[in-house]
Amino acid sequence: MKRENCEHYPCHFEGQDCTLCFCPFYPCYNRKLGRMLNGNGGKGVWDCSGCYLVHEEEVVREILERSMRGESLESIWKNVMEPLACRL
Q1: Distance CA 39, CA 48 (A)
Q2: pTM here?
Q3: DSSP for 69-84?
Q4: Residues in domain Cysteine-rich small (predicted)?
């Protein structure tokens, strides 16, 4: 799904799937997918602006299918996202 009329489109790349407008795994703290930045007051802020995985159509479909079957986000992360991150 593309929402080209969204004020934030494209937040990652042209043609991205916006079904998951935000990442359900944020913050994942996976160093292949993001990094820690210094925020206000010295607190760290997780930056995953370079991660595109939850905006890929096939990944979104897999996350939604597993979620609809009642699989936990923790399990989806382990079985879907971690293997993809390892390939990067």
Answers
A1: 14
A2: 0.80
A3: TT--HHHHIIIIIHHH
A4: 2-68
Rounded CA separation 49/52 (Å): 8
Q: Which residues pair with 37 in a beta bridge?
A: 45
Asked whether 54 and 67 are in contact (CB, 8 A), the reply is no
- 69 pLDDT higher than 90: yes
Backbone dihedral region of 16: left (phi > 0), alpha (psi from -120 to 50 degrees) or beta?
A: beta
How many CB atoms sit inside 10 A of residue 36's CB?
12
Query: Which whole number is the average pLDDT over 7-13?
Result: 64
The pLDDT of residue 17 is 82
Amino acid at the residue 48: C
**Bigger pLDDT: 41 vs 31:** 31
Higher-pLDDT residue of 13 and 19 is: 19
Closest CA to 19 of 51, 64, 76: 64
Count of CB atoms situated within 10 Å of the CB of 54: 24
